[in-house]
Amino acid sequence: MQLGMIGLGRMGGNMTKRLEQGGHDVRTYDPGVDSTASTLAELRDQLDAPRAFWLMVPAGEITETTFQELLGLAAPGDAIVDGGNSNFRDSQRRHGEAAARGVHFVDVGVSGGVWGLEVGYCLMAGGDAEAVERLEPLFTTLAPDDGYAHVGPSGSGHFVKMVHNGIEYGLMQAYAEGFEVMRASEFELDLHEIAGIWRYGSVVRSWLLELLHAAFEQDGSELTGIRGYVEDSGEGRWTIAEAIAEDVPVPVITAALFARFASRQDESFAAKVNAALRNQFGGHAVRAVEQAKAQGADPRP
C-alpha cells in the first residue's frame, strides 16, 4: 500500500522502516531530515489518489498547523491518520472538519517506543469503519500479531491511548517507589540482579521491568548517569481530567503525576513550610541552610 509519512523522528522514522520492510511504498516529508518531498504539496503529488497521509509529529500546535495545511491540500476520498498523542477532543473536531471536505480522518494511538521497529507497535484506531478497513494493511504491518484493534468511533483511538499512558504512569511509579525502598534498606541489595530475576515467574514481571533491568545494566544500580527529573507529555493530566468529569476515582494515576511534578523541584517550598510550622507549634528542630551545606545537601530554595 502507498502512504505519505509526515514526521521522521524516533517513532515516525522507525515506523517508515517497518512499513517499507513489509512491502509498502512510503513517501516522506520532514523538513529536518532527508525526505522524498520538500513540501506537503510535493508529498501529495507523489501519491496516487485516493491518498493516505500519516501524521507522526508532536501533539499540539505542530499537529494542528500540519493538519490544517494538509487538509487544504487533500482531495475528497483521501485519508489522514494522526498517530501522535493528540487530545481525543481535538481528534473528534478534526474528524468533523475533514468529513466536511469529504476527507477521512483516523486517530491512532501508537505504543511501542524505540523498540517498535523490531517488535511492532500496539495500535488503537478510532474512526469510521470504511476508512479504518482501507488502512488496515498498514496497521497489520506495523503491529505484532493481535496488537491492533479498531476500538471505536472518532476520538476513541486517542482516548484509549490516553488511558493507556495514565496506567503507564502508575506502573512506573510503583516500580520507582519499590526500588527506592530496597535501595534505602539495611541490606546491600543488587538492584540490577533483583530486576533481572523478577522478569521470570514473578507476578510483577512486565516489559517495563525488562527495560528497568536494561537501564541498570547500562548505568549501574545507582543510575549515576540519569538525573531524577521526570517530564510528562500531557496524557496523565488528560486522564485525570476525564476521570474527574466522569466521577471516577483514579488515586494511583493522580499520585504518579504529582510525583513527576515533585521530581522537578530542587527543593520543595511546601516542605519548607511544613518544617517551619512544626518548629512553630511544637518547637521541633529545623535544619538550617548552613547545616544542610555542611552535611552535603542541596540548600537551594
Describe the structure.
This protein is α/β, with parallel strands linked by helices and 301 residues long. Helices cover 51% and strands 12% of the residues. Strands 2-1-3-4-5-6-7 form a seven-stranded mixed β-sheet, with helices on both faces. Helix 1 (10-21) links the parallel strand 1 (2-6) and strand 2. The longest helix is centred in the middle third of the chain and has 29 residues, at 156-184.
Structural class: alpha/beta
Strand order of the largest sheet: 2-1-3-4-5-6-7
Instruction: Kindly report how far apart the N and C termini lie.
Output: 57 Å
Determine the number of helices (DSSP H or I, runs of at least 4 residues).
13
> Which assembly state applies to the chains in this document?
single chain
Total number of beta strands = 7
Relative helix content? 40-55%
As a percent range, the share of strand residues is: 5-15%
* Rg on CA atoms, Å: 24 Å
Tertiary shape:
elongated
Average predicted confidence as pLDDT: 93
Order of helices and strands: EHEHEHEHEHEHEHHHHHHH
Largest sheet: 7 strands, mixed
